[in-house]
Each structure stands twice: as C-alpha cells, then as structure tokens.
Amino acid sequence: DQCYIVSARQAAMGAKIVVVNHHLLLADLLLKEEGFGELLPGADAVIIDEAHQFPEIAQGFFNVSFSSRSLVDLSRDLKTEAFSQIAFSKKLLPAAEKLNKLAQDVRLSLPNIGNNLLWSDIPKAFSKKLKSLILHLDFLIDQLQAVDESNLGLRSCYERICVLAERIEQIVSASDVDGLRWLGLTKRGFSLNFTPVDTSTELGSLLSNQICSWVFTSATLAVGDDFSHYQSRLGLKEINKLKIPSPFDYQDSGLLILPNDLPEPSEDIYTKRMLDKLLPLIMASKGRAFLLFTSYRALNQASKIIKKSKSWSFPLLVQGDSSRSKLLEQFIALSNPILLGTASFWEGVDIRGDGLVVVCIDRLPFTSPGDPMLKARLDAIARDGGQPFIDFQLPQAILALKQGVGRLIRDNKDYGVVVICDPRLTSKSYGRKFLQSLPPFPISNNIYDAVDFFYNKGSMDA
Predict the structure, then answer these.
(1) Cα separation of 437 and 399, whole Å?
(2) For 438, phi and psi rounded to 5 degrees?
(3) DSSP structure string for 328-385
(4) Residue 64 belongs to what H/E stretch?
(5) Confidence (pTM)
(6) Distance from chain centroid for Cα 424
(7) What is the mean pLDDT of residues 142-164?
C-alpha cells in the first residue's frame, strides 16, 4: 500500500496522458517484448520529443553487460540461502565464498586506473581469471540445476547464475565486426560490455511490434530537407515526414558571422586568434555570450587566455568549475556574463530574452576519430559498401551544429549573433550542407557587421 512505484503505475494506468523520459519508455518496451510484464500502460500514440537523442539512448538498451557488483550480490545471496538450507550448505558456502574471491581476483588483474579498456587492450592475466570465473559459474549451475521449484531462494540464485553465464558467453564470443567489446573500470569493480555497432534492425522491430502510432519530433532530425539519416537509425522503412517552418524571423532577429581569416583549427594558434577575433563582438554585446567548444582541451585553453587578459572584463563562467545547472543559474543572475561550455551546453538550454545574445562555436562538431565506437561504426558502414564520412560523420555533425546554433533564438522577441569560427565551413565543399541546414540568418564574414548589429539594436552605449 505504501510502495511509491506501485502507486505511480496505478496512476499511470488510469491516466489519459503519461509523461516519461526516453529511458523509462525503452525499458517498458523491452520488458513487454521479452514477456516480463510492463512498466507503463498501452497507448494509442507515443510522442517522442527531443527525438534526435532517441537512437543513441536506445543503443544502450541493446548493450550486453555484466558487472562485478552482480557477482558480489549473488555471492551474498547464495551464502544467505546456504545457511538456511542444511542439505546444500556444505557445498554452497565455500562455493559462494569462492565466487566473491574470483570477482576480486578478476578486478586485481586489471589496471588501477578508472578508464575504460578496449577488449584488445586487456592484460593476459585478466583472460585467465575470467576463464576461472566462467568455470566456477558452470560448477554452480551443475550444483543447483536440480533444485526444486518450490525452493524459491535457491531457484532464483540458479536463474541469476544462468543469466550471468549467458551474458559472459555472449560478450566473450561476440564478433568485433558486429560491435565493440570493452571493460568499464571503477576503483573496486569492473563491468564487461558488448555494444552493438548498429541497432537499427532491433530498434525498428521493437517499434513496429507496438500497436500504436509514433511521432518523433525535434528541431534536428533533417539534414536540409532530408530525413534519411535519422530514419535509417530508427530502422523504420515506411515513415511520414513533415518539416515545419520556423515561426522566427531570422532575417531581422539575427546575423551569422563566418570569419574568413582564421587559421586551420588544427593549428596551435587557432584558439588565441579566434578569441582575438571575437573580442570586438563581445565588447559590443556586453558579454551575454555562450562560447561553445568541441573539446575540453580547447575550452581550457580559452579559459586560461581570457583569465590572463585584461581586455575580457566580463564575469566568466567555465564548465567544470560548477555543475551545469548552477552555471546556468549564475549566467541568468549575473550582468553581462560569458560562459564557456562543451557538449552538454550545445542542447537542452533555453535562455530567452536579451540575457543571451551571442553564441560562438569554435569548430564544426565532428566526433573525434579516436572514439572506438565511432571507428567501429565507420568500419561497419565501409564493409557494407557505404561512405562513412558522407553517410554518418557529416550528417551527425550537421545535426549537432544545428543544436548549438539553436541556443540563440528561442522566442519571437529574441535577437543576437551566431559566430561559427571554423574556416572549413566556407573552404570545404561539404560546408554548403552545413549552411543549408542552419536557420536563414543573413551571413557576413566581417565581425564588425556584428558590432553594427548590436549598435542598431540599441544594446551599445551611444
């Protein structure tokens, strides 16, 4: 009667509209698919807002994993059952203790650092310890498979051991062509994981099996007018598409600056030159700016330069100095602030009015080529005869850039300037695809046109 979850589910079952996040929705879909029940009631229509995030979140639900914590918990429960089962206690007690020790031994065979490891980088000692763990799980399965169904405690432990053994087998035998095998490390524990490269087939099947209508909505689903990239990630073949024009008057409310005299982003001097270029604009806007970066390295470099300079006299907020929510609260409360942020500030930030009038982006947001998951995806696209850059990297970067630019104009009364500093936007042929996907701001290469923009808006002192 006092269970919060039961009460919430009962309320949901009687409601006409239920609002949940992507994770709870996906958890419910998978529970229904596997026949284990449901968290949410059935619906006539499911509307996915911020739908650009949905395929990436869904991929995590198709991840196969097991953790040392599950082994420790299982060892504890086995010992509890062994104490209450005289017939099994003689063999189970030492077996449960050994399971706990094997989990510790596996962790001790791994580095002390808290970084994740690719399967190809794991030490040989780990493989030996993992093999011992697998053999011990097989031993426990043999010991418990004859347990009577009425013995609920031991039967539950048996089923958990079977699931763990199956997951380990799936990960160990998985093909590196189909996904990425990796180890997550904490100070005292570990997790084994297999993340599929492409979950579009599984996701498409999951969505198609539901008897309801689906609506996916976001400001960043299409590259230009083309929805094919997003559609392929959902794994749906037949889908109705609708692109709704923005209600905002971008021609009058904003300006897009594309500086044409900056060095290549790969050059060491790039961040310094970029900030020198931006300074007149920041002075004209009196701060009230987001400077968005694609890496912490560039963000930290910019932070050091600004802090040492006497010219940048506005309050400075830097991601990492406080929580995201606290930084946003400070940005709204302060007069004329500047905020330096990375990925988490590119989306989900809604500051309306004249508190934010400048959004500067340092580089085109291509995902780092050193990211193992990206490399696995690109290799899979190439094996299937596709073009990794055109088919995946470029559309992903375009959608990410649209999110960053979208922080500026949030309301009919908003105004301001977007600066995209990366010279590749105009020097590379693919730059046109980025520009075609952005709001139709007037475009200029001259930073002083932005200074004039603020003068005309009355935000400069006469």
Answers:
(1) 8
(2) -85, 160
(3) HHHHHHSSS-EEEE-GGGSSS----STT--EEEE-S--PPPTT-HHHHHHHHHHHHTT
(4) strand 64-67
(5) 0.81
(6) 26
(7) 88
